[in-house]
Amino acid sequence: MLQFPEPILRLIQQFERLPGIGPKSAQRLAFYVTTMADEQVQEFAQALLRMKQELTICEQCCAISDRSPCPVCGDPLRDRSVICVVQDTRDMLAIERMQAYDGLYHVLGGAISPMDGIGPDQLHLRELLQRIANEQVTELILATNSTVEGEATAMYIARLAHHFDQLQVTRIAHGIPVGGDLEYADEITLKRAMEFRRPI
Amino acid sequence: MKIERLDLQNFRTYSYTSLQFGPTLNVLLGQNAEGKTTILEAISMFAYGRSTRAKHEKELIQFGETQSQLRILFHRNGKQMDMAMKILEKGKQIKVNGVSKKNLSEFLGQLHIVFFTPDDLQMIKLGPDERRKFLNLNMGQFISGFVHHLRTYNQLLLQRNSLLRMRQFDPLPVWDEQLSTVGGVILSQRDQFIQELSFHATRIYKELSNQKETLSISYKTGVKGSNEISYRENLFEQLRQSAHHDVEKGFTTVGPHRDDLLFYLDGKPVSRFASQGQVRTVVLSLKFALFEYIREKTKELPIVLLDDVFSELDLSRQKHLLENLHGAQTILTTTDLENRLKANLNGKVFKIAHGIITVER
Ligand SMILES: Nc1ncnc2c1ncn2[C@@H]1O[C@H](COP(=O)(O)OP(=O)(O)O)[C@@H](O)[C@H]1O
Ligand SMILES: [Mg+2]
Ligand SMILES: [Zn+2]
């Protein structure tokens, strides 16, 4: 049987390592690369390498950034008394996009999941505790995902945070998306929205 | 509730088939392994959200194909419903009235069935797994959020068991807290459901057995409690207390995943003392009780699916069955239409052979 030429096979295997890409897509991508102009392929390869070389982890909030401290931590106008705790850098960017939060962040780099061997020590938790101990933090907003792992992580942090007086710990609300029609919200979301209702 | 049409594509033995059901009785007639149960299985997928006999959903896809599609049209409270399901090798997609739904919780609760199968008899004799499956599938049909809670609970349990195997005690409370919150809901809903079911079952058994014995069904759980709050609080406390024991065992020994459903005739366990005939009547009573429960809750008659069980019943039970369905739409499978069965039947007959269905009358 005719095999893929070795160089293509090598590339297919690399593509297959990416999330959401199965063997079929990997083959399609690899063959597409054969049709690309040389300089395009150069650019592509360079982009991959440079991304890894030029990225760093912010020494304060642990976000992935091109500099440390990252633009948020380095901004003198941010409110340094509030820290919003998120699972990954994408969550932080999502909150930044809404342009309504002016505190700082802390990126955990995941959520506690014993099944996957991720415990508190695998997350950037020690860094968070140091920040709370050394800086004038008065509020911790726990914005981990609403999965069971995200909830467990939030609860774990809340328990640790009890050791600090003067520190208020809050959990973001989960509920009906704005502009969302009540009729089309699923029952779980509705139930949560009812649970976390607030006086107006 | 009435099913009008069922379309199957690449579903097990069916490449393509479309059935139009009659309003009351529908008979699927065919030899063994021709695809009768498959039709009932397809309908049940819309009520349970999953197959009762496939271990992996991709088994449902016809050999050699990559995806399968099912669609059902039915009336519910006078409203026309259209549900569709696409089964892929990895996962499935679901639609209600043309709108895609992300999770099963939004899909379940539309179609309600009572499914009688020959396997029901084993439910009494075998281990608690089958009885929990009965509870889970049927409660998932109309208790909103139940399936979601069950999934969440199982995920939490996997996480807690991983911690136990690593002999880590410190992080347990954050898992126990969530486990007991979800577990408390499951426990109280099961408790409530079984109480209501038991009430109907006792009455029905009396009718079926001509007042001979008294059937009682009870909920067996290792968790103390009587409502959501007490179940939640006690489960949390019991999880805490069993932590060391659980670490030794390597799994969580307390919680709704250990629940059971117990059947007694005049106070004696059915699993040990009942005759084959009594077991059959117990199961029949349980299914009828479910029928009554759904009728009461939804103010509508559920769809009744009878897989190979009708012809096994004696004449008086057959009569009782048909009379007590109050005209509910019924779909039954059988290998032969004996005369006495035929006399009772007044409906549509579908002949099934080699994955092809023809309407006989
Ligand atoms: N994925 C599949 N593709 C094709 N045929 C299948 C598949 N799964 C099961 N079958 C066939 O379906 C038949 C079983 O159908 P079933 O509905 O249980 O029959 P019946 O209830 O009439 O005895 C068997 O012939 C089996 O080989
Ligand atoms: Mg069968
Ligand atoms: Zn930073």
Automatic annotation (TrEMBL), chain B:
Record keywords, A-Z: ATP-binding, Cytoplasm, DNA damage, DNA repair, DNA replication, DNA-binding, Nucleotide-binding, SOS response
A GO term from the CC aspect: cytoplasm
GO biological process: DNA replication; DNA synthesis involved in DNA repair; double-strand break repair; SOS response
Transmembrane segments: none
Binding-site residues for ATP, renumbered to this chain: 30-37
Keyword hit for Oxidoreductase: no
Domain of life: Bacteria
Stored InterPro entries: DNA-binding_RecF, DNA-binding_RecF_CS, P-loop_NTPase, RecF/RecN/SMC_N, RecF_2
Listed GO MF terms: ATP binding; single-stranded DNA binding
Family annotation (Pfam families): SMC_N
Domain RecF/RecN/SMC N-terminal, chain residue ranges per copy: 3-356
Similarity annotation: Belongs to the RecF family.
Protein name as catalogued: DNA replication and repair protein RecF
Species annotation: Sulfoacidibacillus thermotolerans (Acidibacillus sulfuroxidans)
Gene: recF
